[in-house]
Write a structure and sequence with these properties.
Blueprint: H1 3-20, H2 23-27, E1 30-37, E2 45-46, H3 48-59, E3 62-69, E4 73-75, E5 78-89, E6 92-104, E7 110-121
Parallel strand pairs: 1-7
Antiparallel strand pairs: 1-2, 3-5, 4-5, 5-6, 6-7
Length: about 120
């Protein structure tokens, strides 16, 4: 699969999946042995099961209000895209903004991803 196609599928599925908390749709984007790092100094999540557990934990106390992903920038087998999520966390408005780096295998599945993000109170 072309990396641009894979990246557009990845960001589109994440956008819809995050908005609907559709973990199954999101986790289907990852190779069985994929590695994800959610922040630079957090432990990595190895394999689909660990990534799924992390995503479910992330969604637990969150009610998404809006989810946006920018157009991915692609170089070789890697893409990067910005995202912004406005949500209610335990009922309080929060905005999360960041970017995801994703490296794709020949089959178009993510084999390695890492996120850099920050949160702030309120919707921005």
């Amino acid at each position: 699969m072309d990396t641009r196609q894979a990246a557009l599928r990845f960001t589109g599925t994440w956008r819809r999946g995050w908005a609907e908390h559709d973990v199954e749709a999101i986790i289907a984007l990852y190779a069985q042995d994929a590695v994800h790092r959610s922040m630079p100094f957090r432990p990595e999540h190895r394999g689909r099961a660990a990534i799924e557990e992390y995503i479910r934990w992330s969604f637990a106390d969150e009610t998404p209000v809006s989810v946006e992903f920018g157009t991915p920038l692609v170089d070789g087998d890697t893409a990067v895209a910005e995202f912004k999520v406005r949500s209610l966390d335990d009922g309080e408005p929060v905005t999360l903004a960041g970017c995801v780096f994703a490296r794709f295998g020949a089959d178009g599945l993510a084999v390695e991803t890492r996120d850099y993000w920050h949160t702030t109170q309120g919707h921005r």
